[in-house]
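Homework help board

Subject: predicted structure for assignment chain

Our instructor gave us this sequence and asked us to write out the predicted structure in token form, then describe one feature. I got the tokens but I'm not sure how to describe them. Can anyone check?
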Amino acid sequence: MANFAYQAIAPNGRQTRGEIDAPTRAHAVAQIRRLGVMPVDVTERPSSAVAVTTQRQRISGKARMAVTKTFGELATLLGAGLQLDRAVALTIENIGHAGVRAEFVRLLAAIKQGQPLSSAMADAPALFPPMAQAMAEAGEANGALGPALGRLAGAMQQADDLRALITTAMIYPVILIVIAVSVILMMLLFVVPQFDALFVGAGTALPPESRFVLDLSRGLRAQGWLILGGAIGAGAIIWASFQQRAARAWRDRIVLRLPQLGTLVQHIETARFARTLGALVDGGVTLPSALAVAQRTITNSVMARAVSDVASSVKQGGGLTTPLAETGVFPRIALGFLRTGEEISQLALMLDRLSDVLDRDVKIRLQRIIGVVTPLITIILGAAVAAIIAAIMSAILGFNDVAVS
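My token output:
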């Protein structure tokens, strides 16, 4: 599977650009045409260039928040009747993030030269994702750029809120795990060695659990750095292997099958997909093109591949709910909302409501998981420390019994 950069002409005559994965150039051209655009230049990119682009697309949360805030202000100014260049100039004065400010200065220069906003945003895909470019292009096509940017800002804000919710929810369990591992290591590296000299020469006279704890402590002290290096190396190998498409697909498939966690991941991905797709459809983007853009917001490769297959089916004139149901990777509640949206011709509205429902469900599930994981980690920590202390005390008491007898 190779990565191809392409330039194409949309039905409204505007030039678009993007990236697509395909086994050959012919397959890439066919996929681009199924998006409803005419490819004019399709170039295979070397793997090194793809890696560099991926690295550059990692932006900080502060930069994302600054972009979201700026789009919201820009929508308000355009709604007040200001020209685009004047509105962008005013929003630049309120941008505190230096990198984001520089990109909007570049956008302003491009706009003054007659370049459309969507085309100018395509030169900075890290800050302006495909959803932003598609929404801006649709707003320019139907003369409603202000409302389109307002919907874009709302969708980006909801995505940031969900990301912040997940990050915040994971802080406490991670801290507990770090504390648990640290306490156990301190016991084995500093507390247990204090009794090591007492048990020298005891050999088989020690209880099995005491010998196990002493041997574990000695092993960590003697080869701790080697064990740490091996763990880091093994982690790096596993991480590198999961960068391969086949391994990543296997991992993502296994994750979706895990109890509780699989459902949580499924709902997180579906909420992000529904919110993006709803904003694009509401902004006037055609459904096949909206599906192609929304697919890129899904991080689970199995679900992303399913959406790609559905986009091809929709392009050929099929509905959305039936092919999504056939994939078997989307929750039943999502299929019900989509089916209702298609029946009442309110797909964008139902997608927006679906994302809200799934967001609430994700919050509840996160609270439940944390409610179980937090005491579980505490119990494991207490049991591990108690087991180490019990092993030492049993050895000491054993020596006392021998001395008394």
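Reply (TA_rk): Your tokens look well-formed. For the description, you could write something like this. The CA atoms of residues 341 and 350 lie 5 Å apart. That's the kind of observation they're looking for.
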